[in-house]
Every structure is written in structure tokens, then in C-alpha cells.
Amino acid sequence: MPLRLVGIAGSFNRPSKTHALVSHVADLASRRYGFSSKVYDLHDVGPSLGSSLWRKELDAQAAGVIDDIVNADVLVVGSPTYKGSYPGHFKHLIDLIEPHELRAKPIIITATGGGDRHALMVEHQLRPLFGFFMAHTLPTAIYAADRDFADYKVTSEQLSGRIGFAIDELAAFFPRSTAACRLRSECDERRSRHDGAGTLERRRFRPPLPASGSRTEPAAYAFRPGGARRRAACQCKTQPIDLTLTRRTGL
Q1: What is the value of pTM for the model shown?
Q2: Which stretches of 34-126 are DSSP H helices?
Q3: Burial profile 95-122: b = 16 or more Cβ within 10 angstroms, e = fewer
């Protein structure tokens, strides 16, 4: 069963730059790590959010959204900026979640605003909020201004770079997903080069004894095309590493 990513955009507006940003980040992360994903906004939560003081008072629609949030393996959270902070309905939604339900969960925090004056909202508002829940907010927070969008799509190269940094940081939490996606990508690339006639295998061998002052690293992967073409491809060669300087300096 694939890991689950859930995005929540703290906005009622449709279309919405906040929803567009959260969806963009969720889509890139899902393609990178093989997540299944779903993105909600406050409109999806429904009207019972504003009339409920307790979680048990929510209707089935709102309760289902909260259940998806707390059961997700990773969250992408985004909020518009109003008067330097997040909107009240968004905070009320988060207030209905028990603290232990987000403990140790990786969260990419994002926010949108009219200009740069609100850029620290992600650090001064969202990060402390989820710090209370003892969640893992990723080091790279993402803030987007109006100029970073065109027709509700991310167009800024600088913003795209920060999004890439945040998605890279998820690899620490999902190393198996990262390795699997990388391996699938390598296999697809090699199959396309060799018309699907090859196989990827793990080759383990004991390297020859190194000469004095050097050592060798074993090759990790080798590709051997099948069928009539029995030539070696993508061979990983051993690389000598000079340890003279290391031994001399004692590092």
C-alpha cells in the first residue's frame, strides 16, 4: 500500500494561490517518492467547522478530512496570510486535532501573501504552531508572493528552487521510497537505451588487496544486456583513494 500524503490549504477561495501552491508541492513530492495524495481546502471541510466547539460535533464530511490529516504519512500545510498570521478557521481546524496525533509527522509548511512583508509568517506562526504538536516541520519553509504565480500556477524559479529543497529533505524520512524511485528511474532509463533487453543486478565481490597507502571501493551496480548482445554496460570501476595525506595529518 503506498504511503499517503495529505495537503491542507487554509483558504475558502476557489481558485486560490494557497491551494495552487499546496497542490504543486504535493504533486512533486508524490511523483518523487511514490505517495498517493489528496489535497483539501476549508471549503472541503464544510460549514460544520465554524459551528463546532468539539471534534465530536463535526459532521461526517469534516470528520473525514481530519481523519485523513491525522492518518497521513506526510503533510503539506499551506495558509494565506491575513494581518500577519493564518486565518481563524484554519486555526480552529488545527485546534480540533489532538497533540499526539501529529507527533513526529513530517510536515512541509507553506504560506502565501501579497508581498515580502509577510515572508516570516511561516517561521513566526506556522512553525511554532506545529512545534506544539511535536511534529517534524522540515527545515525549508516555503513562502510565495503574488508575483510568484501566473494564472494560479507557480512560475518563479526562485520559489521552485525552495520547493525542491523541501522535497529533497523528505528523503530523510522515506529512504526506502527514495531508493525505490531512484532505482525505477535508472531501470527505465537503461531499458529505453537498450530496448528493454537488459536486467539490473546487484554485484557483490571482494576487491583485490589494496596497495600500500590506498584502498579500493567495490562496484555497486552493473548492467548486463540480455539476448544476443552480451556486452557489459554501465560498469562501475573501482576508484583508488589516496590515504597518504590522511595518515600524515592524523585526520
Answers
A1: 0.72
A2: 42-45, 48-51, 60-71, 88-95, 121
A3: ebeeeeebeebbbbbbbbbeeeebbebb
Phi, psi of 52 (to 5 degrees): -110, 125
- Is residue 136 pLDDT above 60, yes or no? yes
Q: pLDDT tens digit string along 27-53?
A: 999 999 999 999 999 999 999 999 999
Measuring CA to CA, how many Å separate 139 from each of 36, 106, 111? 23, 10, 15
> What Cα–Cα distance (Å) separates residue 109 from each residue in 9, 62, 88?
10, 22, 17
Contact assessment for residue 173 and residue 74, using Cβ atoms and an 8 Å cutoff: yes
CA-wise closest residue to 93 among 37, 124, 49: 49
- Indicate the DSSP class of residue 209: P
Tell me if residue 221 falls in helix, strand or coil.
Answer: strand
Q: Distance between alpha carbon 124 and the CA centroid of its chain, in Å?
A: 22
The whole-number pLDDT of residue 180 equals: 56
pLDDT at 138: 97
User: 29-34 long-range CB contacts below 8 Å, 24 or more apart?
Assistant: 29/5, 29/74, 29/76, 29/108, 29/167, 29/170, 30/5, 32/167, 32/170, 32/178, 32/181, 33/3, 33/170, 33/174, 33/177, 33/178, 33/181, 34/2, 34/3, 34/177, 34/180, 34/181
Residue 37 DSSP class = E
Do 233 and 225 form a contact (C-beta atoms < 8 A)?
yes
DSSP H or E stretch at residue 6: strand 4-9
Euclidean distance between CA atoms 23 and 16, whole angstroms: 11
Whether omega before 207 lies within 30 degrees of 0, making that bond cis, reads no
Burial degree of 184 (CB within 10 A; 0-12, 13-18, 19+)? exposed
